[in-house]
Amino acid sequence: MRENKGKVISVFSNKGGVGKSTLAVNLAVYLASIDKNQVALVDLDLMAGDIALMMDINPKSTIVDVTRDISGISYDIIDDYLIKHSSNVMVLPAPITPEQAEFVSPTCVDKILSTLMEKYDYIIVDTGPNFGDINLSALDHSSKIFYITTIDIPAIKNSRVGLDIIRRLNYEEDKIGLILNMHDKKYGVSQKDVETILNKKISKMIPMDLSTVVSSSNKGEPFVINMAKKSISKSIAEIGQWLKEG
Ligand SMILES: Nc1ncnc2c1ncn2[C@@H]1O[C@H](COP(=O)(O)OP(=O)(O)O)[C@@H](O)[C@H]1O
Ligand SMILES: [Mg+2]
User: Fold this and answer.
1) Which GO terms describe its cellular component (predicted)?
2) Percent of all residues in the chain with a pLDDT value above 70, rounded to a whole number
3) Is the residue at 2 inside a domain?
4) The pairing of beta strand 83-84 with beta strand 90-92
């Protein structure tokens, strides 16, 4: 068991398609590539998790198996349920079918995350686009919540609603890192506009780079590994370094 508990980092937005899974996968892989970090990646998008696919791993066990055995779960056996990716990231995949999601309760998620915190330096949690109890138990464990928005008006509107809810739930403001994904100056909405509408400073930006993101996700190879020189990979590395510092 570790002396200090590991850090849970949740990647969240109440909207789908903004890049949560893309960031979660690539950030986990980046963190595992530095400082000999032990990194776990938990797919809590229970209805539509696609991390196993994005990392080209066979989900021979999933969060549903841990749930089945939850009373006996402890830090010394949790690895039996995780799947090791070639990057050394240990992955806990989402249920294979959406109807299995109902077996996973918020109490199970609490236990899984507390157990992983006894073993791993970082536990990156990918989430589904909602404020359900499963996500709230992840947010409760998190030392950092990366709230993702993109630069289109529907996403910004949803982010305003989502950030309002997060604030009303009393998560500390400095726990929340606002990440602007798919950034491209040509879209006519500036970083400043987004900050004004959301009443929050953007912590980090990830550029739009369709060819890198789609080709890496189709191959099941996170881009921070094979395309480390691309500016999108550098932006993920910056987020990882920022976590390391604080
Ligand atoms: N920075 C980016 N540039 C280009 N495409 C991106 C970027 N981030 C994500 N995408 C694409 O957007 C889509 C949604 O991303 P995903 O990570 O699955 O979002 P979410 O998990 O929030 O639903 C995917 O097709 C992904 O490849
Ligand atoms: Mg996703």
Assistant:
1) cytoplasmic side of plasma membrane; cytosol
2) 100
3) no
4) antiparallel
Which of 213, 214, 227, 235 has most ligand 1 atoms within 8 Å of CB, for mutation? Answer: 213
pLDDT digits (tens, 9 = 90+) for 58-116: 999 999 999 999 999 999 999 999 999 999 999 999 999 999 999 999 999 999 999 99
Query: What CATH number is given to the structural domain containing 165?
Result: 3.40.50.300
Question: How many domains does one find in the chain?
Answer: 1
Query: Within 6 Å (CB) of ligand 1, which residues are found?
Result: 16-22, 181-182, 206, 208-210, 213-214, 217, 232
Identity of residue 44: L
Contact yes or no for 109/44 (Cβ under 8 A): yes
Ligand 2 centroid–CA 1 distance in Å is 31
pTM score of the predicted model: 0.97
Determine, yes or no, domain membership for 168: yes
Asked whether residue 36 is assigned to any structural domain, the reply reads yes
Beta-bridge mates of residue 96: none
Identify the domain containing residue 79 by its residue range: 7-245
Say how many Å lie between the CA of residue 25 and the centre of ligand 2: 10
Distance 17 CA to ligand 1 centre (A): 6
Domain for residue 220, yes or no?
yes
Find residue 145's DSSP bridge partners.
10, 176
Query: Which ligand 1 atom minimizes the distance to the CA of 214?
Result: 27
Residue 193 one-letter amino acid: D
At 130, the pLDDT band (50, 70, 90 cuts) reads: very high
Centre of ligand 1 from the C-alpha of residue 150, in Å: 10
Q: How far apart are alpha carbons 101 and 62 in whole angstroms?
A: 11
